[in-house]
Amino acid sequence: MTVFDSARFAERAERVLDSQAVRSKLADEITDAIINAGPSNLASFRTIIRSTLDPILQTPAFRSIFRRALDTSHDYLFTQSGNTQVINLSESLNVLSGSLQATNPDLATSIPTGTNELLVEIGDQTRGLDLWRIAERLTLAGAGLLLAAGLFAFGTIALDNNRHRSTFALGISAAFSGIVMFVLATIAPIIAGSYANDPDTERAFVSATEFFVSDYRLYSIWIVGIGVVLCAFGTATAPHGEAVTVRSVIDRLRSAIDQHKPTSQRGQIIHAILLMVIGFIIVIERETVIPLLVIAVGAVLAYVGASQLLSIVGRRSTVTTRSAVLADVKEVQLNNLTMRVALMLIVLLISIGAGAWFTTSDARSQTAANEQRKCNGFSELCDKPLNEVAFLGAHNAMSTAADPGWLFYEQTKSIPAQLDFGVRALLVKTHYGIPTTVNITGANAVITDSIAELAVNPIDQDDQYSNEQQAKAKELQANIKVDPNLRDVYPCHVYCEYGATKFTTALGYTRQFLNDNPDNVIIWFIGDYVSKADTEKALREAKVFDRVWDYDPAAPIPTLGEMIDAKKNIVMISEFSGAPPAWNIKGYGVFQDTPFTFRKDSELYAPGSSKYTGTASVEGPVPATVTGADGTEQWTKDWTGVPSCAPNRGTPSSPLSQINHWITPAGAAPTIGEAKDVNAYDVLMPRVRDCMTQRGKFPTIVGVNFVEIGDALQVVNELNSGKILPITAP
């Protein structure tokens, strides 16, 4: 009745805002929605918006908006006439704007208030479940069952000749119902948390469900208590009944169990297996089981105490009760022979179990390796070489809206969240940076040490940034005094002033992910504007250097399983420096790629897409090589395929392939709107297919902006599932 009645549901669901984990996750989601819906400069104020939302989510105004939104969406799902398709929290934007008016009026004007952008879509599929029909039935059934329960309880006692027995039976039913209710209230948060795909969401789901069902635990304990009292009353008032003691209750339970023991061999086997399963569940889910055991033991003790108390004031003699109490505290004497036999059986069982465990350890390990392990999410990939596995790549993975200090970004999720989502190739640039004490959008600004970089590699100028933006970065460099002794390596994009993340921190995310998910291989493709020595130093400080694969160009390309078994499942690719040493793989020696500077989405459309209007057609692999005068391989100059698949960096014999699939507007930051278009399945998959055909290479990395927007993960998963076969090089 609570779930299907809109007012009750909204009132109870509002309680989840008392959870810090829920408010934190909700504030993150609202912040992301505001930034994605507003002007591009809002990304610079992410930290301010996020910190302002924290207290707002605890105000009566927001709670009222939250309850009203849930009530409206509930009507959509659970009433036949419902026509609202979304949970609308847009009113909260007005609250946020009003709060910012006092502290940051310029920012307040940028908040997209009065729009319908802050919506949670439910969708026609959920509406199609016809939950309103179920709601109508269960609403009637709720009242009917409550009335029926009362009538049956009264009838059980009134119509039975042995009312002591019926009272006891009614008490058992009530106690059992209370325990079931407690179990459901305990496991519901665990089940809810299992639907999350990242730790923050899991904590929010668990906490929200606990707040939603918390008082049901209290109700369940009261129901158990009522059942115990009914059982005790039925026992204490029975004429000529035996005195109730803890031992007598245990004996009765043992007798009941013995009566239901199977006699056939098949039944005994099933009985033994069930006992083993229950034992394992108790060990594994001990945190859930312990409260249940406490309730069960407490219920037994309460039943014994209540029975003895009622017998004192009821029909039994005081002498009988005293003797019963005295019997309850007698020490149990065990026969020496019985004790020895029991100990021998225990030792024998332990020995057999230990022997079976150790003698089958190799077989179990092999079975786990062959049947249970999934490399990068697919068991089939464990035996695939690196050049036949597709990796979802996050372009400028370090540049995220989720981390403070970034004025422009190409990803919304942090690196840990990207890895959890399915990213397995992190495409970054590393620069020398010097931290300052100047705070910009929640983080201290980092100055690019251009002079130190000139000693290693010349700096490429990136026309993604406008002349004004570049001038601002240089002005910041000139006006802030920095200590060169604080120099460190930072993943950032040309100008660390626009945002920077310490390299050791980013590498530490990889270490933690592989500790939790060891059957994965991760590629770091680094545009290294720093020395190899400093890259190695960062790897060692982050404690991942021992996990980096040493590449031997003369050896066969390793399989994912080989790299994982060797615990060398990080591949370091450098754009500029390269080997030696062996761990520092020359990027465009092993990789060949496509162009990556596309100004508009139509440049990424390919034959097979409904949006493609060109005339290019590719029947088979396009010849891609010519031989130079010195005998070296070169890319052909007369490319006849789709321009976006034309050769770019690398050589024709490079074994790995990278498809660059993102928009780089001149003088502006990429947008989520662009990603929605180019990351769509109808755009990305046709281009991947055409580039595979034209270049004769299976794509090792499919790199995109805003990885979670669109269908990039689906495309990569289909590549890895075998639906799209590797291409044989021409």
Quick tags:
disordered C terminus; 26 helices; alpha/beta; 4 domains; two-stranded antiparallel sheet; 14 strands; ten-stranded mixed beta sheet
Distance between the termini: 67 Å
Q: Quote the average pLDDT.
A: 75
CATH class identity of the largest domain: Alpha Beta
CATH topology title of the largest domain:
TIM Barrel
Share of residues in helices: 40-55%
Roughly how many Å is the radius of gyration?
34 Å
What low-confidence regions span 5 or more consecutive residues with pLDDT below 50?
Answer: 315-371, 726-730
CATH architecture of the largest domain: Alpha-Beta Barrel
Tally of individual helices: 26
Assign the CATH superfamily of the largest domain.
Phosphatidylinositol (PI) phosphodiesterase
Walk me through the topology.
Layout: H1 6-13, H2 20-37, H3 46-56, H4 60-78, E1 86-88, H5 91-103, H6 105-108, E2 119-121, H7 124-127, H8 131-159, H9 163-193, H10 199-236, H11 246-259, H12 265-284, H13 286-313, H14 318-328, H15 336-359, H16 361-372, E3 391-395, H17 415-421, E4 425-440, E5 443-448, H18 450-454, H19 467-479, E6 488-491, H20 503-516, E7 522-528, H21 532-541, H22 560-565, E8 570-574, E9 585-586, H23 587-590, E10 591-593, E11 625-627, E12 633-635, E13 656-661, H24 672-678, H25 681-695, E14 699-704, H26 712-721
Parallel strand pairs: 3-4, 3-14, 4-7, 7-8, 8-9, 10-13, 13-14
Antiparallel strand pairs: 1-2, 4-5, 4-6, 11-12
Helix pairs in contact: 1-4, 2-3, 2-10, 3-5, 8-9, 9-10, 9-13, 10-13, 12-13, 17-20
